[in-house]
Amino acid sequence: MQSRLIWDTDGRDWPNRQASRFVPAGGMVWHVQQAGSGPVLFLIHGTGATTHSWAGLFPLLAENFTVIAADMPGHGFTTRPAPSHMSLPGMARSHHALLRALGIVPSLVIGHSAGAAILARMCLDGLIAPKTLISLGGALLPLDGLPARIFSPLAKMMAALPHPPYLFALRARYTSMVDDLMKGTGSVLAPETIELYRRLGMSPGHVGAAIAMMANWDLKPLRRDLPHLRAHLILATGSNDRTIPPVMTKKVNALVPGSEVVTFEGLGHLAHEERPDLIADLIRHAAGLPK
């Protein structure tokens, strides 16, 4: 079983492949997709995903914007950095290095799940200064109670061992685990989208990066700093999100002055993959464009 995904084979039918290129920055080689013209939008996907998460949204946004998305460090077709880069501050610095290499200054940024946390950290650390940050099912607050006492130590243990990524990859290949994980988000995805997640799940390198990221994640400083966020924060949530329930979004809304909540009825954690048209309308509206 190969550890890393190979672009010429695993990426042969990757969504929006024609927009892809590879960019060295911050000690890594990034898989980047860029298309369109106009105001610059920067998108960061969630843990365990890649640019494929924007498959339907990316071309819609390219009609009005310069859209840039990349695979996170170690995810998909981006090479894996040193372990210190897998923390939230490390991810923020790495993405800043990519933006500098690309020579772009985004006016609006969109992050899904953990991607929203990275963008918020970048804003708070003065690495970017967009007018608006749109959080799609943003994982912006620490887990509470029993999950917090179990999840982080478990992720750290798995990251320290060589075998868990390979065991996960084997289960992804031979069981319904990936289908079950997708159902657990509360989203209903097309079969071809689930197949891409299965392909990622069968890559020990990709899985290992996601585990390392979770093992090094600490959202307590972000929770402390969020009230100082200067960018206008739009918190988009699906009413059926089982990963980051809407109640968590309401807690962030109470923390960040001037933030607003937009709820999409019947959609789950991957709302942007279920209804990219609705998310595109939200982004256009945030940018002051007609829907």
From TrEMBL:
InterPro entries xref list: AB_hydrolase_1 (IPR000073), AB_hydrolase_fold (IPR029058), BchO (IPR017497)
Record keywords, A-Z: Hydrolase
GO molecular function, a single term: hydrolase activity
Keyword Hydrolase: yes
Superkingdom as given in the UniProt entry: Bacteria
One Pfam family hit: Abhydrolase_6
Domain (AB hydrolase-1) ranges: 41-281
Name this protein carries in UniProt: Alpha/beta hydrolase fold protein
Organism: Magnetospirillum fulvum MGU-K5
